[in-house]
Amino acid sequence: MEEIREINASSNKKLYVHLMVNDAFTYIDNLRGMNIEYITFHVEIDEDINKLIDIVHGMGYKCGLAINPNTNIDALEPYISNIDLILVMSVMPGYGGQLFINSIYNKLESLRNKYKNMIISVDGGINQDNIYKLRSLVDMLVIGSYLSTETKEKVEMIRNIKGSLSNSVGE
């Protein structure tokens, strides 16, 4: 939470906060009043998801639901009319630097076909090799390890990412 507060205080851009926690109520309450656009939490948590969605919207934020790689997209169905975004984890949550799970392409394609107007995001194992396949399936990319490696080519890496998305919504 301290890092989120620091980033919030030092940036004028709206934040996208992805909560990978079981006690989402506590964390969401601590985000009140910050410059946030989206708060996303996992459909797999053992909490009242409808109540959490209502709280997030009541705070003036958009709400997203994340699903793990092994979660069926049908788990989203009860909430779909009340959320603003779907985040598909393309690695098992827990640590950075994992490889993209190739079966996620099928999941993203199914989501895109089923929820044509929903913002769909993907998180995990994103790099310049798979961005081109993802551009027609998602609106947003969450990129961590690919850009956090120590390299002098970061500017070129960002150009590659932006170039691959130049015709898509999630630029």
Mean pLDDT: 86
- Runs in which pLDDT lies below 50 for 5 or more consecutive residues are 167-171
Q: Can you give the helix content as a percent range?
A: 25-40%
**Strand adjacency order, main sheet:** 1-2-3-4-5-6
C-alpha geometry: globular
**CA distance, first residue to last residue:** 27 Å
Task: Give the percentage of residues in beta strands.
Answer: 15-25%
Number of helices: 7
Tell how many strands the DSSP assignment holds. 6
**Series of secondary-structure elements, N-terminal to C-terminal:** HEHEHEEHEHEHH
Q: Tell me the Rg in angstroms.
A: 16 Å
Quickly give the structural class.
Answer: alpha/beta
Q: Characterize the largest beta sheet: strand count, sense, and whether it forms a barrel.
A: 6 strands, parallel
General description of the model:
The protein has seven helices and six strands. Strands 1-2-3-4-5-6 form a six-stranded parallel beta sheet. Strand 1, helix 2 and strand 2 form a beta-alpha-beta unit. With 171 residues, it is an alpha/beta fold.
